[in-house]
């Protein structure tokens, strides 16, 4: 992505957002791209180039906690209703009244809230990898995991329970290659058997296991997209 088209903005609650912006030409709409976990705006590099070249407006933020955007430690700062207001602050700063918003993975949560809380700012919503996610008063991860297991025959959210543990972040940061390899392996069955199963991811990291990265994880992708690793001076090792 063209680094000259990146900007930084302090949103109304005092946090810095780093984002890509190219204004629309003529009467073309602006497209907002919202990445998932564990990615950054770089996830949308091909789409950004494609639509920018054709005169569409393009906004691609590093969402809160990722890339060049602020990374507050308090979990309460990551409430979707707050993040979506940050996104609207970006739209306001760029004079963009309405967007076609596209969310991938956890970006679909922010995409959903944009439609819930600011429908007047939306032309259309598109969801990739996950569909619309309604607001939740509370979330019982164990119950959700059991429900999905009953529906599809295997656990889908066991890793959520691990992420909620106090030592999860430390373990992931100590063994980033182990973590990324199971999530982006050339063997997709590991997502089911190791990553999303109850206790599976913690055991995998605890043992320091490694899987073979998929061929799509090039050095460029490893450095520029996944967890912003090279910005932090982390390992540049890659499988390709």
UniProtKB/TrEMBL annotation:
<dbReference type="GO" id="GO:0016787">
    <property type="term" value="F:hydrolase activity"/>
</dbReference>
<dbReference type="InterPro" id="IPR000073">
    <property type="entry name" value="AB_hydrolase_1"/>
</dbReference>
<dbReference type="Pfam" id="PF00561">
    <property type="entry name" value="Abhydrolase_1"/>
</dbReference>
<comment type="similarity">
    <text>Belongs to the AB hydrolase superfamily. Epoxide hydrolase family.</text>
</comment>
<feature type="domain" description="AB hydrolase-1">
    <location>
        <begin position="29"/>
        <end position="130"/>
    </location>
</feature>
<keyword id="KW-0378">Hydrolase</keyword>
<dbReference type="InterPro" id="IPR029058">
    <property type="entry name" value="AB_hydrolase_fold"/>
</dbReference>
<dbReference type="InterPro" id="IPR000639">
    <property type="entry name" value="Epox_hydrolase-like"/>
</dbReference>
<protein>
    <submittedName>
        <fullName>Alpha/beta-hydrolase</fullName>
    </submittedName>
</protein>
């Amino acid at each position: 992505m063209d680094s000259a088209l990146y900007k930084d903005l302090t949103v109304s609650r005092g946090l810095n957002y780093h984002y890509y912006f190219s204004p629309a030409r003529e009467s073309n709409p602006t497209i907002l791209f919202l990445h998932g976990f564990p990615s950054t705006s770089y996830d949308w590099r091909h789409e950004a180039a494609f639509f920018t070249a054709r005169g569409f407006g393009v906004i691609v933020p590093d969402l809160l906690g990722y890339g060049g955007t602020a990374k507050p430690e308090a979990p309460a700062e990551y409430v979707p209703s707050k993040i979506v207001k940050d996104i609207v602050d970006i739209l306001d700063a760029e004079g963009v009244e309405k967007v076609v918003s596209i969310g991938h993975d956890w970006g679909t949560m922010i995409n959903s809230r944009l439609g819930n809380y600011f429908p007047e700012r939306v032309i259309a919503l598109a969801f990739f990898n996950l569909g619309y996610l309604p607001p939740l008063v509370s979330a019982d991860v164990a119950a959700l995991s059991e429900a999905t297991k009953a529906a599809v025959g295997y656990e889908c959210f066991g890793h959520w329970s691990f992420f909620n543990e106090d030592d999860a972040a430390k373990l992931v940061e100590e063994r980033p290659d182990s973590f990324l390899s199971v999530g982006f392996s050339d063997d997709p069955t590991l997502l089911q058997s190791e990553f999303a199963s109850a206790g599976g991811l913690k055991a995998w990291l605890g043992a320091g296991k490694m899987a073979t990265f998929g061929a799509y994880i090039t050095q460029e992708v490893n450095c520029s997209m996944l967890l912003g690793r090279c910005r932090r001076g982390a390992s540049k090792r890659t499988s390709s």
